[in-house]
Amino acid sequence: MRWWLKLRYVLYVKDTKEVIDSSDDYIIIPIGKDILLKEIEKNLENAEIGKVYDFILKKPYGDRREENIKIIPINEFNKRGITPKPGLIIDADGMKGIIRNINSGRVIVDFNHPLAGKDLVYRVELVEEVKGLEDKIKGIINFFYRIPFDKINVTIEDKNIKISIKEGNLPDKYKETLTNYIEELKNYKIE
Predict the structure, then answer these.
(1) pLDDT in tens, 100-113
(2) Are 151 and 165 in contact (CB under 8 A)?
(3) Cα of 151 vs its chain's centroid, Å
(4) CB atoms near residue 53 (< 10 Å)
(5) Where is the FKBP26 IF domain (predicted)?
(6) At a CB cut-off of 8 Å and minimum separation 6, what does 60 contact?
(7) How many angstroms separate the Cα of 9 from the Cα of each of 6, 17, 27, 124, 142?
(8) Strand 160-165 relative to strand 189-190: parallel, antiparallel, unpaired?
């Protein structure tokens, strides 16, 4: 792992500019731990702080495939107590699909990924390099558990770290996530 970054990102469809995902504010993450796509992390290894980078992802969800569009009798939905309607997302045998059309007792379900056949753009703005342990801890908790930075309290004294969230104690699963991503924490006791 080369470094920790504070960054903002937007993921959108190249042709339509439809935003798929974005950071509401900034996030703090380590580069080299596969939090972002490997291809993007590799390109960020030598990136410059203060710059904005656009990474084009060529059909990351593959091509749209006709064989992923199925016709299902409407009575299969009725048996399960489902009222099919266009736009409804269903789960059939572990596969997610979207109902496209209903016609003559037949339901057309598209099991292609919604982004199949589309090129995406991942725009990343590098705000600053992060070196402080407290910022790294807050960054990981914020990224994985969506807890705002101002609701996370970190106190570091010698080799002891006390972390509280919204005036409560840190759940054990958070501690495990922290030690998986922040190598320095192996030298500390987390309370």
Answers:
(1) 999 999 999 999 99
(2) yes
(3) 21
(4) 16
(5) 70-115
(6) 37, 115, 120
(7) 10, 14, 9, 4, 15
(8) parallel
118 alpha-carbon distance from chain centroid? 18
* Tokens read off for 34: 């596969």
Per-residue tokens: 117: 């056949």
The predicted-structure confidence for 131-186, as pLDDT tens digits, reads as follows: 999 999 999 999 999 899 999 999 999 889 988 888 677 788 888 899 999 988 98
Q: How far apart are alpha carbons 76 and 61 in whole angstroms?
A: 29
In single-letter form, the type of residue at position 102 comes to I
Q: Which residue has the tokens 């924490």?
A: 185
Residue 38: its H or E element: helix 38-44
How much is the pTM?
0.76
Name the residue with tokens 């320095």.
184
Q: 136 with 161: CB under 8 angstroms?
A: no
* 3 state DSSP class of 77: helix
**What's the rounded Cα separation, in Å, for the pair 114 and 9?**
21
- In order of start, what are the domains of the chain with their CATH numbers? 1-64+115-131 (3.10.50.40), 66-110 (2.40.10.330), 132-191 (3.30.70)
